[in-house]
Design brief:
By secondary structure, the chain is of the alpha/beta class.
């Protein structure tokens, strides 16, 4: 991770902790392709224990199903890397972790695993509150596995901040 990206991630994390704390919101994560990077970035900020309840690393589809309530039929029909799965993961995190806001990420970090429909660098970021949920598609082309993961972490923090506003 470049120093600039790392600095931006930690800056966004500090801003997120401050805004969520002021608003009195609890936040959680549901992470697949990032494997806990988003939660790690948030908890690197002092004071995060007041607003971050935790996260679920749902790398395996069975964990998405069992812990985040994503129906197996949804994964079967659309694939784990899809808008509906990212949305359901985020909504599942809100429900199962009893928070006001959650982010979920699912994607193809590479270097293998991509397809014509979902090339390496394809990532869905889901956001959910108690009232609504949605997902946004990102394409991080021509990046290494770790850069895809880092860029996903950065965009997930931005999405959480936007949802707080």
């Amino acid at each position: 991770m470049s120093q600039n990206m790392l600095k931006e991630i930690f800056g966004l994390s500090a801003e997120l902790v401050e805004k969520a704390t002021l608003k009195g919101w609890k936040i959680a994560t549901a992470e697949s392709c990032t494997g806990g990077l988003i939660g790690a970035a948030i908890t690197a900020t002092s004071g995060s224990s007041g607003m971050f309840k935790g996260g679920i690393i749902a790398y395996d589809n069975q964990i998405k199903t069992k812990l985040l309530a994503v129906p197996p039929s949804t994964i079967g029909k659309y694939g784990a890397v899809s808008e509906i799965v990212a949305t359901r993961m985020a909504a599942g995190a809100v429900e199962r972790l009893d928070v006001d806001l959650a982010v979920a990420v699912t994607g193809v970090a590479g270097p293998g695993g991509g397809s014509e429909d979902k090339p390496v660098g394809t990532v869905w970021i889901g956001i959910a509150t108690r009232e609504a949920s949605f997902a946004v598609l990102h394409h991080f082309a021509d990046m290494s596995r770790n850069k895809v993961r880092d860029a996903t972490c950065l965009e997930a923090l931005k999405a959480l901040l936007k949802a707080l506003d």
